[in-house]
Recover the amino acids of this structure.
């Protein structure tokens, strides 16, 4: 039996996935939860073979939940998303996901993908893989990415300076440079752009 954890904040979709996948004779849905933090906790408790994670969830999104989960659980993560963009694909793969599929994937195809990933394979939607290859390169320096990542997490420039052990003015310089590169009007907008493109 393939033990499966499902995490999706949309109750209707989560319920449909549980019902459809439970029809497969070789699947056992051991847990279903509504947010990223609960997904990590459930993975530790249930030790699933496959964790099916929605990309956009409260608390932690699918990519961040996968990263935390894989620190302590030997599972195979598949990210499922309605907004399948090249940047999110890169974030998911860097977090350790072995599969990345749009929510438009038919249930029968999803079952095949789960079996393949559980057996050690990988699956990436072909159209997403093509788009990712054509996407522009990340223009941010590692330190600019750090600053925007912490900005995205809601930290102030003073908090960022303290966490990165740099002067407040240095953080402002990194933000100014990132704004210019991303053609953004604010640091919040810049962090959102960088997150969308998978650069932070």
């Amino acid at each position: 039996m393939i033990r499966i954890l499902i995490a999706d904040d949309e109750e209707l979709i989560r319920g449909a996935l549980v019902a459809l996948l439970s029809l497969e004779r070789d699947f056992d849905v051991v847990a279903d939860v509504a947010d990223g933090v609960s997904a990590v906790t459930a993975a530790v408790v249930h030790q699933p073979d496959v964790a099916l994670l929605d990309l956009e969830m409260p608390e932690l999104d699918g990519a961040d939940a996968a990263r935390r989960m894989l620190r302590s659980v030997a599972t195979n993560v598949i990210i499922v998303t309605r907004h399948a963009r090249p940047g999110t694909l890169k974030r998911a793969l860097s977090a350790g996901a072995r599969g990345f599929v749009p929510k438009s994937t038919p249930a029968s195809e999803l079952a095949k993908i789960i079996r393949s990933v559980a057996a050690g394979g990988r699956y990436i939607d072909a159209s997403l893989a093509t788009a990712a290859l054509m996407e522009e390169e990340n223009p941010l320096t590692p330190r600019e990415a750090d600053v925007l990542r912490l900005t995205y997490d809601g930290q102030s420039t003073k908090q960022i300076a303290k966490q990165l052990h740099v002067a407040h003015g240095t953080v402002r310089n990194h933000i100014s440079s990132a704004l210019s590169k991303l053609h953004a009007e604010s640091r919040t907008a810049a962090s959102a752009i960088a997150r969308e493109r998978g650069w932070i």
Summary: The first strand starts at residue 2 and ends at 7. Residues 2-133 form a domain with the Rossmann fold fold (CATH 3.40.50.2300).
